[in-house]
Amino acid sequence: MAKFRLAASAALLALSFHSSQALADEGMWTFDAFPTARMQKDYGWAPDAKWLGRVQAAAVRLTGGCSASFVSPEGLILTNHHCVVECAQDNSTDKRDLLKDGFVPTRREEELKCPGQQAEVVTAISDVTARVKAAIGASTGEALVKARDAEVARIEKDGCKDGKTTRCEVVTLFGGGQYKLYTYRKYSDVRLAWAPQFQAAFFGGDPDNFNYPRYALDAAFLRAYENGKPVPTPAHLSWNSRAPKVGEATFVVGNPGATQRLFTTDQIAFQREVGLPLTTTILSELRGRLIAAMDESPQQKREGADELFGIENSLKVYIGRQKALNDPAFLRMLGDAEADLKAKTMGKPGIGDPWADTAKAVQAYRDIYVPWRFIVPHSALMDQAMKLVQGAAEREKPNAERLPEFRDSSLELTAKTLLDEAPVYPWMEQLELAWSLSKAREYLGADDPDTRLLLGKESPEGLAERLVGGTTLADPAARKALWEGGRKAIEAPSDPMIVYARKIDARERELKKLVDERYAGPLAEAGARLADARFMAYGNNVYPDATFTLRISYGKVEGWKERGQDVAPVTTIGGAFDRATGAEPFDLASAFAANEAKIDKSLPFDFVTTNDIIGGNSGSPVIDRNGSVIGAAFDGNIHSIGGNYGYQGALNRTVVVSTAAIQHALEVIYPAPALVKELVHK
User: Fold this and answer.
1) pLDDT tier for residue 523 given thresholds of 50, 70 and 90
2) Do residues 320 and 257 make contact, with C-beta atoms less than 8 angstroms apart?
3) How far is CA 391 from CA 225, 380, 419, 467, 479, in A?
4) Cis-peptide into 115, omega within 30 deg
């Protein structure tokens, strides 16, 4: 699924900070700043450096947007089923539907490559704040962004000399208050090793999504390979298929994607008034168009399943966020936190009034948001065309002057995602491109210069049909030839999608300059002073917003009260049979029904904890005090959606699939005896 340009990128918007100190169980902590003393006080115990190091070495980031962990010495990776849906879809055909039937190979030689997927493990974290801030100096606006990005590119290049096995990434924390260099060991050959049926993993469908109780086997296994062989992974988590214990301490280790707890009230207002309403409106229409198209044939229903799953999940998230930001009590909580920080720091030397500067930047962004949002139409083929066009130009520049995804530190992954073979569905490409172009015309206006640039004299539907029908970019060989041919190859072809991408590239670059000058640059400058204010007020008892980098949260197995009723923290496998109605989405997966006599219905299925997580944590191992994995986080309850902006310990819950249920499935529902033997080391 091509990326949506949503309200604005996290890197741009998450540039202030949560004003108060973290509450009990709140926090997505970096491994080099774990709050040992605070947890010791809350729980009477806290992990030591050796425990943290062992867990960090086993934690995996999947570049497709999920978390995971090594759970055997032979490269076996535990994650969620919904994190491998795209891989299963890419390897499916009309005759072999891996979503409908699941995937249970009998030999490792049958494990399937996942296009575009890469697994990464953090090997080092170093502070490069002084170096980046020195490069920025007194720069402002676009000049600040250029100076910062150039130094980041140099640091990343200096940090990773071996680009084949390592990747370096400089991460902005606290809105520019800190910069850290993360070094990764990367594995570019990731294969699907086991997956249950989609209906088992997503039992209850969209109605159950972000809700609880749950009865979902949302688990899967991948395997990392290198030189055609499974990767030796002596640093891995111990597998423990015991039941979770109510009240026991739990740790979630993963890569939360992005939070906006660092927003000022002006940034919150932009989300509430502009970004979220627009996003939910247009995604709702896309969902309707896609469902109608999928109903046209069984083939399109199969091909569109992954896309629909992603859209419906996104819609629920954005609707939930909008609801949270229209809750007076929730807004008051956020406003009180900001007021407390202002009272402690505003006007002090080195701080000034960064809130006013942020407000000015957000106001400027309101004027350019819509054209920036819609200038690049949405489709997988369009995304590929833009990468090819921009890549040809960017790779001619010095490394320090390139756009981030074309820097030396990112170039190999960019090429992998662009060139790996994966199916393209023309009907879906045409549908999404036409939808995107029609929304651009609707929000920009028919007479807007950007609308005329995007459409000329064509209709959205006609243009989409011409571009998709005439392009060769669905062929990986064609993409490879254009990528390797550079500027000469890009400027020569008559491929309509490439010609179109060349036409809009200049305008996107022009808009990026405006965004950097009026919004990103001023926010980075204000963000650094806001970070200084936070440290001045609260010391080091604070955590940065999520950045899709490795974090650890602690909590416990615990339910909550919903409308005055206690919600039990653990469900059983038998509950799925009780919940089943025989009608979608509450129909049992066929393997569950066929093996009912063998299934131990008393075993724990899913459970909830107070751990603080967000999107991107999907697949994160849930670890006990002994460092063993007892589950994989796959969702949050409905209250956790507001956790994007603030954590509420009495309500926010992480939803976990238990290792007890996963192992039982491996033994009797989707039998994989070799995997069981590998997990328990017998």
Assistant:
1) very high
2) no
3) 28, 16, 13, 20, 12
4) no
